[in-house]
Amino acid sequence: MSARFTVLTGGVGGAKLVDGLYRILPQNSLTAIVNTGDDFRHFGQPISPDIDTLLYTLSGKSNQALGWGREGETWNFMAALKSLGGEDWFNLGDGDLALHVLRGMALSAGEPLSGIIARFAEAWDLQLSILPMTDDAVATWVETDEGLLPFQRYFVERQCAPKVQAVRFEGAAEAVPAPGVVAAIMDCDTVLVAPSNPWLSVDPLLAIPQIRKALESTKAPVIAVSPLVEGKAVKGPTAKLMDELGLEVTNHSIAAHYGNLLDGLVVHNKDEAPQSVAIARTDTLMKSPKDRERVARTVLALAAECRR
Ligand code: FO1
Hints:
This protein is an alpha/beta fold. Helix content is 39%, strand content 19%. Helix 1 (11-24) packs parallel to helix 2, helix 1 crosses helix 12 and helix 4 (96-108) crosses helix 5 (113-123). The structure holds ligand FO1. Ligand FO1 binds next to helix 2 and helix 6.
């Protein structure tokens, strides 16, 4: 049986590492388990941002500047919607709408999200498994000094300005992993945790009991890539959030957050590193495909070291 790799991912930073892995690993040897805590209904459409960002990134359609949505997108739907007084804090591009409309129709017909995403990945000829963490409803809520906010209201409408006191994952405790998720963690040679925001984009996965249990019992090494570069987040609110949660903005806090789940951590160049796990160092900034491949090679090499 050839080697199998599983990566837990969410958000924009996560998609870059998955792309690096996808570029260098054999076809169909990679499974991505994706956060769905950011999912919500907008204009009645089911939006799955972290899944869609991954579909776009791996199929070369993503808008690299924005970090989400499609390259060359047009916005006629939003212009027409605004002219009718529709709210415009969350923008749905004309091409992007195809994903939401088809996903909505399939969900209404009773198809599970995991089956829908597998069809989308196949339609775009992607040679890997993309699994939502669950087919059940899980919603990330952010407790802030402005009250309890649904994730996208915090992240997009308020641009992560409110001060965070806690993050909650409604439905996670009762959620069942999507088909194939537990097996992908238990039966693989390596589990990777992408440089996603641990508190916002990875924790929803860890809040699903059977996923956490699988990570605790898998024989595969579990290796994460730190989302911090020189004590700052590459993109998004990771550092600000850590500060607000009273945590030091260091790789120690990242390793401590994952606790006994982690065997190794890839850190940026000379950034300080925790003693509690195996460490590898590289430039973890992923601006180009070559960068993504470099970080992917580094994390796979550390996994091989931990497996020995
Ligand atoms: N992020 C924004 O900052 N503004 C938007 O208008 C926006 C629209 C959007 C539409 C579809 C989609 O899949 C993602 C979108 N995002 C937008 C990004 C999204 O909020 C984030 O990718 C994730 O939820 C955070 O990981």
